[in-house]
Design a protein that fits this description.
alpha/beta, Luciferase, domain 3, Rossmann fold, GMP Synthetase, Chain A, domain 3, 5-stranded antiparallel beta sheet
């Protein structure tokens, strides 16, 4: 269909203003971005990391120097143009220094989840092709050093020559944040020491050669397949969003942002790092989420901008110190969240929830700014951001639908990914360069997008994406399970909770807790089903076998959960796996 010949108001096509007209954008490479905010805010506090009795504090000038140290060390270890550098850490200063340090060295930062189980981590290492891995040795009960040594026994041997692994042929160096040092895994200080022989001028020259169209980052996100997809984004895409979040949130230089959500999710990079550093504020980091600890940290550091997911708000409101803490510093906190109800908080700030996006667009593609009038939002998910075009198409034919008709959302714009690793452009984009999101929705006459759910059945739980097929694949290996179909059931704080609907082989008695323990050993905690429901084959086969029947299966699961609650006399959800990093 040649829709250019028809008035766009009659068709489902909406365009944002030109990118050149967007206010507030600065340098469009990560090295240029860091240089610009450092020049503006050199002596202001940029990063705060309280640990126990100690309090680490970096200024913007310190952050530049720490990133420079990482860059010099990476170059000394052989990093060059487009070298992929894996970063697998909780929210700690080294994560931020590694992101920008990789960019200064001309490399590509690859974000790995700290939720990763051994099979997941092995898959990420194989598919990403990282040459250098910077990781945190232990996160809560996960010992990543032990995982890595089990995958590649050569890491257990004491040596300092580049790794030569047949399993991970591109991997040459592995470095643990902190002082940990085992076998061929280097400690952080030893890694940084490599860079003393790298001239600063070489790093400066390397950073200056980075272009907006170069690859900037590689993030992984669950898609419609049973394995995470590697998403390549340009330097420009990342930087546009880093600058943009400051404008969308309307923040000033007084920002003090708390976050415990992993930076391996692009949304947290944009909302936390972007909003804060672009404004000249300070990032107050909590490595893993603890509700009571988060409240104490907000009080001690006078946090005014918290970044959290709905289930975390609920946990903070239920924390034992909720009534004792002073949260009067909170300013950029949505008036609809539990934190706004705290007796010491007074706010009428409304977060721009009217937004739509995904990792493929490195966060939002449509949005309204903070405090947009309700009549302008009108229940929508925003309007196309500068440079973006959104169209609604028929999922089967790909034809653009009439204005107001429901179909599949397709997007194009300056923050759209370069592509998925391992796939060619024609496998990802249509003939005009649009990305078909797999999400359903429509456009109204005011160019507002209304997102109505996922055509691909991805589960959105606590801000994270979960592929049902990935969970199904794990449960299929459990002895006694004949059929498994995983769905997302509506939940008042998580958005959706992961629920597995299973059919047992004849004569097999399945135990929910045992199945969940099995899944927990093989899946990240947020992917583990919160409920495992047993059905007869006659109940599930008609609803679970076809994608078009997934809505019926969700209803069947929701009805059974409600029935079990009544039968068991439960007034609350059963305990589930922790969802914070």
């Amino acid at each position: 269909m040649s829709y250019e010949l028809e008035p766009e108001r009659l068709l489902s096509i909406a365009r944002g203003v030109k990118l050149s007209e967007e206010p507030g954008l600065g340098a469009l490479t990560l090295p240029g971005y860091l240089r610009e905010v450092t020049d503006r805010f050199a002596e202001r506090e940029a990063v705060v990391f309280p640990t126990g009795s100690e309090r680490l504090s970096w200024s913007y000038a310190d952050l530049w120097e720490r990133a420079m140290q990482v860059a010099r060390a990476l170059i000394a270890c052989g990093a060059g143009k487009d070298t992929r550098v894996g970063i697998m850490m909780t929210n700690r200063p080294e994560w931020i220094a590694s992101l920008f340090g990789t960019a200064l060295a001309g490399g590509v930062a690859v974000a790995f989840s700290t939720f990763s189980t051994p099979p997941e981590l092995e898959y990420l290492l194989e598919k990403s092709g990282v040459a250098i891995l910077l990781f945190e040795g232990q996160v809560l009960k996960r010992d990543f050093t032990e995982m890595l040594c089990a995958m590649e026994p050569a890491l257990s041997h004491k040596r300092r020559t580049p790794l030569a692994s047949l399993k991970f042929p591109f991997l040459r160096h592995i470095v643990a944040a902190g002082a940990y040092d085992a076998g061929a895994i280097e400690g952080w200080d030893e890694f940084i020491a490599h860079g003393t022989s790298t001239p600063r001028a070489l790093v400066e020259a390397t950073a200056a050669s980075v272009q907006p169209g170069d690859i900037g980052v590689l993030f992984f996100s669950s898609g419609s397949t049973n394995k995470p997809k590697g998403i390549l984004s340009t330097q420009r895409a990342v930087c546009i969003q880093l600058w943009r979040w400051r404008r969308l949130y309307g923040t000033q230089s007084d920002v003090r942002c708390w976050s415990a959500n992993g930076f391996f999710w692009s949304g947290n990079v944009g909302m936390a790092i972007g909003t804060t550093l672009s404004s000249g504020g300070a990032l107050v980091l909590q490595p893993t989420f603890d509700a009571a600890g988060a409240l104490d940290l907000m009080q001690a550091e006078r946090v005014n901008y918290p970044v959290a997911w709905p289930h975390q708000w609920a946990q903070m409101e239920a924390a034992p110190n909720w009534t004792q803490v002073d949260l009067s510093s909170l300013k950029y906190v949505d008036a609809r969240t539990p934190l706004s109800r705290h007796k010491t908080v007074h706010t009428d700030w409304l977060e721009p929830r009217a937004a739509y996006g995904n990792t493929e667009t490195f966060t939002v593609a449509t949005a309204f700014s903070v405090n947009a009038p309700p009549e302008r939002i009108a229940g929508s998910n925003g309007e196309p951001l500068p440079g973006n075009t959104v169209k609604i198409i028929d999922p089967l034919s790909g034809d653009v639908l009439p204005r107001g008709a429901r179909g599949e959302i397709a997007v194009k714009g300056p923050t759209l990914m370069l592509g998925y690793i391992g796939l060619t452009a024609d496998e990802i984009f249509d003939a005009e360069g649009f990305f078909r999101t797999g999400d359903g929705g429509y456009l109204d006459q005011e160019d507002r997008l209304f997102w109505e759910g996922r055509l691909t059945d991805i589960i959105k739980t606590g801000g994270a994406n979960v592929s049902p097929l990935e969970v199904d694949g794990v449960l299929a290996a459990y002895p006694g399970i004949k059929l498994a179909r995983t769905v997302g059931v509506p939940h008042n704080t998580l958005g959706e909770m992961v629920v597995a609907c299973v059919v047992a082989h004849e004569g097999v008695a399945l135990v929910e807790s045992t199945i969940r323990d099995f899944a927990r050993q093989r899946l990240a905690s947020y992917k583990v089903p919160r409920r495992v429901l047993l059905f007869g084959e006659d109940e599930i086969s008609l609803t679970g076998s076809a994608k078009t029947k997934s809505g019926e299966l969700r209803k069947l699961a929701a009805d059974k959960i409600e029935y079990l609650r009544v039968k068991e006399g439960q007034g609350a959800l059963p305990p589930g796996p922790p969802l914070g990093p």
